[in-house]
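We emphasize that the prediction below concerns an isolated chain of 112 residues; any contacts that depend on oligomerization or on bound cofactors are therefore not represented. The input was used exactly as deposited, without trimming of termini.
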Amino acid sequence: MKALSDETRLRILNLLRHEELCVGEMEYLLNITQSNASRHLNKLWISKIIRHEKRAQWVYYSLNVKVIEDHPFIKVLLDTELNRLEICKLDLKNLDEYKKSGMTCENIKGCR
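Result of the prediction step, given as a token string:
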């Protein structure tokens, strides 16, 4: 529960329910520092709500579907409650624009 008690972590989960992302992308989309993103991702990973996979020099994060299936209240939070938060709606709009832009983990650092 503590992992779900922070707005930034909820915003991360909101993005990850739609798209697998690397740290740089979350940093860009949420307008947070790399250290802040990594700290929140670590807490979500320790709680097993998210998983990660290293590809080349990037680590990609996604929801841990098994944990969400085992804890239905998390699914309700993700599918219902996050849709009510204005900041989460804005984050999804930014994600949509980001996907249309063609940016990736490889070239995002030069786009700030």
